[in-house]
Amino acid sequence: MGDSFQEQQPNSQLLRLNTTWFQYIKTITNFHVYDPNSSELKNVLKHLQHGTISEANEMSQGTQIKLLLELPNGFQGLLKPYRVPRNYQTQPDHFYFSDVERHHAEIAAFHVDKVLGFNRVPPLIGRFFNITSDIREKATAELAKTFFISPAHNTCFRGHCSYYCDTSHAVCGKPGDLLEGSVQVLLPRPPEINWQKITHPYRRSYSSIKQVEWESNENFCYEHVMIDEDYHNRLLLDMMDLSAFDFLIGNLDRHHMMRINSLGTNTGLIHLDNGRSFGRYDSDDLSILTPIRQCCFFRYATFMRLYKIYHQGFSKLVADSLDTGETLQTILVEEHLEALDRRLEILFAHLDTCMKKHKVSGVMIDDGIY
Ligand SMILES: Nc1ncnc2c1ncn2[C@@H]1O[C@H](COP(=O)(O)OP(=O)(O)OP(=O)(O)O)[C@@H](O)[C@H]1O
Ligand SMILES: [Mn+2]
């Protein structure tokens, strides 16, 4: 058993203690954000999928539009709306930092993370809304002001944010009032609990002209990461897990790493914000594996799980997991599923190169964390 809110109850007066939501929160530990076999997970998913919305507000953090939904029994959900079709690929001339967020990528990333046995993406579902009765009629005054009817007679809203929040990028019912989106359970936030936001050492430049050091210095890990005491605990291996996860889902946008400090010093990363993954299926971005290639460390338990999943058929497990019986159109098109299998092989090849250089015992670390 790891550390959980059950024992700790940080700032417990602030948490909504007598709710179904808090029953779920108590299953979060320093190892995972849900217990995959628990009735509490089923309950969260049910609330996100079917819960009636009592209020819709804009989430103030972040660059693209997200809504904060008030749901029954203490639950809150984070809605990312449909923006592009399932087979849309990132425009070749667009940088990762102006790429659009995809709700289907959030849904797929939750399932990939779960199949991989990380259980570090907060529970998330896809559902249909009625943009008028579920959102407009429940909207706060600020959000309500941004609604309009498009020339095609669809109900739309614009919201306020720094990317894609103008009339030409509005979120519209298609057709009429029908809106699709992903909804993730909102975890407690400050002042209820403390989060730590760590700047990713392998963060990209977020500039069209600048390069960052890790892109040209192959000794970057030794010179900057390994000598940093903050990484002399589970964080280094968590970062390798994250690099593997991000490579498989094709996420170039991991600028920060987040963890819940209230769960103690041995707390794991939470795989938040995967909306820019699954941008391309016809190519694999090897630069996402740079932390693994340069540091040549990997968590043994993760490797063992990946190995097992490889033999069971990775993409098939993901497709089965995604097949939840809800009415949404298939989340990952065949090309994305094929990319998952192809990328898992590439990850193994990288680990193999590391092991040839540093021996198995120099790469695979058993830190007792699964
Ligand atoms: N499920 C969640 N529970 C609690 N807090 C969350 C959750 N999802 C997101 N947040 C908080 O909201 C912030 C913004 O969310 P997210 O990263 O998904 O949006 P974004 O528009 O991609 O933001 P950014 O531009 O910072 O990448 C996160 O950094 C985190 O602090
Ligand atoms: Mn983001």
TrEMBL record:
Keywords: ATP-binding, Disulfide bond, Glycoprotein, Golgi apparatus, Manganese, Metal-binding, Nucleotide-binding. ATP binds at residues 64, 80, 101, 184-187, 273. It is found in: Golgi apparatus. Mn(2+) binds at residues 101, 273. GO terms for cellular component: Golgi apparatus. It comes from the Eukaryota. GO terms for molecular function: ATP binding; metal ion binding; phosphotransferase activity, alcohol group as acceptor. The active site is at 253. Its cofactor is Mn(2+). PANTHER family: DENTIN MATRIX PROTEIN 4 PROTEIN FAM20 (PTHR12450), EXTRACELLULAR SERINE_THREONINE PROTEIN CG31145 (PTHR12450:SF22). Belongs to the FAM20 family. This is FAM20 C-terminal domain-containing protein. It comes from Rotaria magnacalcarata. The lineage of its organism: Eukaryota, Metazoa, Spiralia, Gnathifera, Rotifera.
